[in-house]
Every structure is written in structure tokens, then in C-alpha cells.
Structure prediction request, 214 residues.
Amino acid sequence: DRELDLSSNNIAVIENLGATRDLNDSLNLCHNSIRILGNFPTLDRLKCLYLADNRIAAIERDLAQFVPRLQTLVLTNNDLGDLVDLEPLKELGELEILSLANNPVMSKKHARLWCVWRLTSLRVLDFERVKQGERMEAKRLFETKDGELTDLAKSILDVKSSAPSTNTFEPGEGLVEAVAEKTAEEIQKEQSISELKAKIRSEMAQVEAMEQYI
Prediction:
């Protein structure tokens, strides 16, 4: 798979990706200063998006419109605070692997079960396989026998989301220039990213192996 590596570039805003011409399967934006997950051009080919160690506190509402085939999303070590802020992710119909580890949102009560229930295509959450028992428990918590939302689910969705609704991408802009020389810290960050990807691959291999016996 083809990957574009823009990690450790002091990027504060996702922009200028139209110049990539949708030629990449993976995009690495780890170790930057991004605050909003959004402002993508249409990237039909993109399957993996790595955004660990940023400052992301909001997800653009129409994210799925621009990255419809996204399967892996790593948001480890960011600032997402409320479960309702994750709502844009439910439109990603092919999302199988999600990491929200070390985000404030995952300290919320029932956070994992909410993600399992709301994001129905998930197979791995925070590097742990989603179990059938979790799916059943999540449905019991958030859905009535008539298929309506429980009071608990309604209370979660009633919180005001910080998600922006507008994609401000301007086509035709160039790519951010990469830094020529790498510091020791950048090399260490690259190693941590490689370890993260290896962990994802390992967990998915275990999931696929177990599913053969289900």
C-alpha cells in the first residue's frame, strides 16, 4: 500500500491534500498540532488514517463524505471529550479499527460500549477485539426492545457537539514541505508510529484467526 508520511511537521490544520491526487492508501499525520479532524478533499482511495499525538478535539460532521472507504482510524493521545463528538464516525460504513486511547472521552461511563453500539462495523477498538457479548450489552443499554433510543442514549446525544459542519478545502493548493533533516526526537516518533502499526496488524490478525472458528 502507498503511504504519505506528514508526521512531525508542526501541522496545525489539515489542508492542501488535493495535490496528492488521491493516490495514497494511508496517510500519516501523527505528532502534529491538528485540532479538528476534517477539511479533506475527496479521498476515495484512503483506507488508513493515523493521527496519534495531536490536539484533536472535534471531528467534522461530514467527514465520511470525503473519506468514504476509511477502515483504520488512529486517534490515540488527542483531546476528544464527549461521546457525542464521535457521531460523525458512525457514517464511516467500512471503519473496522479505531483507537481513541488516551482521549478524555474514553473515561466517560459506558464509552467503549457506546462506540461498539454506535459504530456497527468496528472489529477492533483501542487494540482490543470487539466481542459479541459487548455488542449485546451495548444494545441492551442504548436500545429499547422496540428499536428506540433508551433514556441513557438520548442523554448522551443531547450534549452539544463541538463538531464543525463545513469543509473549507480549497482545491489546487500544494503539499506541505517536509523537513529535510530528522532530529533524534523525530526518529523516536517514527519508531513509535511503526510500533503502533505493528500492534494494529497483530490485533487484526488475531481477530481474523478467531473469526474462522465462529
